[in-house]
Amino acid sequence: MTVLGLALPVTFTGQQLPVTSRSRHSLVVKCSSERQILFNRIAPVYDNLNDLLSLGQHRIWKNMAVSWSGAKTGDHVLDLCCGSGDLSFLLSEKVGFNGKVMGLDFSSEQLAVASSRQNLRDRSCYKCIEWIEGDALDLPFDDCKFDAITMGYGLRNVVDRDRAMREMYRVLKPGSRVSILDFNKSNQPMTRFMQEWMIDNVVVPVASFYSLAKEYEYLKYSINGYLTGQELEALALEAGFSSARHYEISGGFMGNLVAVR
Ligand SMILES: C/C(=C\Cc1cc(O)c2ccccc2c1O)CCC[C@H](C)CCC[C@H](C)CCCC(C)C
Ligand SMILES: C[S@@+](CC[C@H](N)C(=O)[O-])C[C@H]1O[C@@H](n2cnc3c(N)ncnc32)[C@H](O)[C@@H]1O
C-alpha cells in the first residue's frame, strides 16, 4: 500500500517494495531493515523519552491495553513488538510466576534493554518472561498457542499489517483476544492537527537534543500512513477474527483495538 508519493516498485533484497514517499533529498523507502535500525538507534533513550513526552501517560495507556487483553493468572501470553518490555512486564504481573510471557521483537538493542530491566527487578513474576528476537511477520510459534496477545505501538511499524494480523490469529487460542495499542489516526481534523502540532513542536525538538530528530519525525509519517479505527476493525475481521472493536483513548490521541479469535 503506498502512503505518499509514487508507487514505483523498488527491488530490495529481491522483494518488490513500494516507494512510499519522496523527500526533497532522496527517495525514502521504509522497509523492515530500516525500521530495525531506527529502533536499535533509539533504544537507549526510548523509555525516558516516552515518559517525558507523554508526561508518563503512556504507562496508563499500556495498562489499559494489557487489561483489555484478558490475560489472567497462569496464562501463556505473547507481547509482540515488545521493545524494551513495558507490556511484557505488565503481562507478567497478570499471569504470575505460574504463567509465561514471551516478548518478541526484531530489535536486538530494544531486547537488550528489556533484558537488563528484567535483571534489575526482583519480583518473581518477572522471571516468567522470555525474550525472543524474531519477526512479527513470521512467528516462530505453533498454531493456537497463546491465551492472549498484546501489541503496543507495533502494528503501525510493521511493513505488512495484514500478515501480522494473520499471524496473530494463527497463534492465538480460539476465544482468546489480541489487544493492539497505538496512536489513533483520528477522523477529527482538530485532533489530527493537535497530534501533528505536538510532534512537530514538542516531540521532534526534544528528540533533536539526542540527535534523533529524524527518527522521531518518522512518527508523523507513520501515523499518516496508519489505519483509522474502523479500518483496523475491518483488518481484524478480514484476518478471521470473530469480533473487533477499536476504542479511542486520551482524547483521541491514542487508540486500542481489541479482537477476539
Ligand atoms: C509510548 C508512545 C510512543 C511509542 C513510540 C512509537 C513509535 O512508533 C515511535 C517511532 C519512532 C520514534 C519513537 C517512537 C515511540 O516512542 C506514546 C508516548 C510517547 C510519544 C513519543 C509522545 C507523543 C505525544 C502525543 C502526540 C501527545 C501526548 C499528549 C499527552 C496527553 C500528554
Ligand atoms: C514503538 S516500539 C514499541 C515497543 C513496546 N511495545 C512499547 O509499547 O513501548 C515498536 C517496536 O516494534 C518492533 N518491530 C517493528 N517491526 C517488527 C517486526 N516485523 N518484527 C518484530 N518487531 C518489530 C521494533 O523493533 C520496536 O521495538
Automatic annotation (TrEMBL):
Cellular component terms (Gene Ontology): chloroplast
Source taxon at top rank: Eukaryota
GO biological process: methylation; phylloquinone biosynthetic process
InterPro entries from the UniProt entry: MenG, SAM-dependent_MTases_sf, UbiE/COQ5_MeTrFase, UbiE/COQ5_MeTrFase_CS
E.C. code: 2.1.1.329
Catalytic activity: demethylphylloquinol + S-adenosyl-L-methionine = phylloquinol + S-adenosyl-L-homocysteine + H(+)
GO MF annotation terms: 2-phytyl-1,4-naphthoquinone methyltransferase activity
Sorted UniProt keywords: Chloroplast, Methyltransferase, Plastid, S-adenosyl-L-methionine, Transferase
Pfam families listed in its UniProt record: Ubie_methyltran
Subcellular location: Plastid, Chloroplast
Enzyme class: transferase
PANTHER family: 2-METHOXY-6-POLYPRENYL-1,4-BENZOQUINOL METHYLASE, MITOCHONDRIAL, METHYLTRANSFERASE
Protein's job: Involved in the biosynthesis of phylloquinone (vitamin K1). Methyltransferase required for the conversion of 2-phytyl-1,4-beta-naphthoquinol to phylloquinol.
UniProt family annotation: Belongs to the class I-like SAM-binding methyltransferase superfamily. MenG/UbiE family.
Protein name: 2-phytyl-1,4-beta-naphthoquinone methyltransferase, chloroplastic
Organism of origin: Arabis alpina (Alpine rock-cress)
Lineage of the organism: Eukaryota, Viridiplantae, Streptophyta, Embryophyta, Tracheophyta
Gene name of the record: MENG
